[in-house]
Amino acid sequence: MIQIPIESMNLMMLNVGCATHHADWNWQKVSSPFIRIFYIVEGEAMLHLPEEDVLLKPGYMYMIPAFVIHSYECHGVFKLYYIHMYEGFKNEVNLQDTYELPTEVRAGNSIRQLFEYVSSQYPDAMLPEPDPKSYDTSAQTSNYVERYMNMELWEKMELRGAMLMIMSHFIREAKPHIWTSDERMKQVLRYIHEHIADRIDVEDLADMASITKTYFIRLFKQEFGLSPVRYINLKKVERAQLLLYTTDCSVKEVAYKLGFSDHSYFIRLFHKVAGITPQEYRRQLRL
After folding, report:
1. What is the CATH number of the domain that holds 90?
2. Range of 26's domain?
3. Out of 4, 13, 224, 262, which residue is the most buried by the measure of CB atoms under 10 Å away?
4. What span, in angstroms and rounded, lies between the C-alpha atoms of 249 and 254?
């Protein structure tokens, strides 16, 4: 299995705080470039994900990965702590590539105390209001990143420790997602992530692994569960989502930044992977 060095987990804390809702936590089709984690204190609510509905209940933490479109449903009193973590642009293999992370984990009183402490120490990081439309914009995300970057070193260290402690609960119950003992495939995977903004040719990858193209494709799919082309396209669309959210680049410019000479093909590929066109994706985020 490919291991991720802790030092490569470049997490930044955007928001942290506590919120109490009274049947008003009912936001629809939310999607963001950051990881959301909730610790539930009181009451229950429903989290609607693309492939499952999850009942949120006290004493548990829940993770929503970046760019996953989801909705909330709440019919009574509902109290939770939240933290938003941002990874920004990543060229290395990341957690979601390496592990199948659980949506739900049990969390003891020590985690509640951790949330209480971090929330009390950083009151400026509370959300301005609960509606994601009020804070889930590229401009606000940039402001939150800048605020984190301007913090004192000791504050970043403290927040990093808290984020790693929280994430460790999910990693403890995660299942390895990518298994390979083949050093050739590890090298290929690193190359793909480091050059995701370039045109990547499967024949070049096969040459890098010193095997024939046909055998390389079969071996890659055997090791990672996807063909090389599908894996590369998936990672390019993930990067495109981040560019569409965090920049004002046109769709054509995003396509060219990711090595596509034909932006019409890029649009078709994005729709195939994400279920909507790049234009619809950006419009949905900025409603």
Report:
1. 2.60.120.10
2. 6-176
3. 13
4. 6
